[in-house]
Amino acid sequence: MITSIQNEQVKFLVKLHQRKFREKFGQFFIEGTHLVEEAFHSDWQIDQLIYTEQAEGKLPKWSYKLPSMVVSEQVFKHITKTVQPQGIAAIIKMKNWENASGKYTLLIDAIQDPGNLGTLIRTADAAGFSRVVLGKGTVDLFNDKVIRATQGSLFHLPIFQNELVAEINELQEKGVTIVASAIDEKSVTYDKMTIDNNVALIVGNEGAGINKQLLNLADQCIKIPIYGKAESLNVSVAAGILMYYIRK
Which of 65, 93, 121 is the last residue of a domain? Predict the structure, then answer.
């Protein structure tokens, strides 16, 4: 059992909470029984399982074949971010999804709140979207708060980063209709949008909305009517309404 936070393996685990080290090693850190099981059952490579002695009896049978590290409660609290850690965590190898295709794409422009991004991914998964593309300025997918907010959905569909102008141009060349969610003079209510078999929905930054260059590239701009006194909807709520309508 590893009991010191000065242990080199423990120091490496702490480094995985920083984006530059995740990208350098092509790995990311998850914690909690549910997320670890979702990763395994979704065929993601688990490079190492980390758990406490107290949690050992709760491990599923499939976990015994994995490279493992047993740590003390003190060390586990040091390497995790949750207030009440469950005693089970893992190092996961990143996947390259850039060539993934599908009929329904969610394009995310500069979403900065980890909870919003995680909820967007979870909703895209629930709505049956095929892929999610993260544009410039969007919070890191493997941020621990994003991972927790996805509730395991990040393991269920292709998610990757790309420059959105290039992504949109490529999609349009393939005949995909680009729809942008925006409160704009040119926007029509979402129930009037033209829905094709291949659609990409753009959602934008919580405060600034979608970048003007991206809006100009969109085939349609749509909005959700506000019947009460609220100025706007949360981006993940709005995206959920639109994704389900598109899939209808």
Answer: 93
pLDDT at site 31: 96
Q: How many CB atoms lie within 10 A of CB 229?
A: 5
Q: Quick one: 26 and 132 in the same domain?
A: no
Domain-terminating residue out of 93, 127, 158: 93
Higher pLDDT pick, 60 / 109: 109
* Mean per-residue pLDDT, 219-237: 95
User: Exposure pattern of 111-150 as b/e (b: 16+ CB <10 Å)?
Assistant: bebbebbbbbbbbbbebebbbbbbbeebbbbbbbebbbbb
Q: How many CA atoms lie within 13 A of 55 on its CB side?
A: 23
Tokens 């092509």, located at residue: 26
Q: Output phi, psi for 12, to 5 deg.
A: -65, -40
Tell me if 76 sits within 8 A of 102, measured CB to CB. Answer: no
Domain of residue 187, residue span: 104-247
Q: Which pLDDT value is given to residue 83?
A: 85
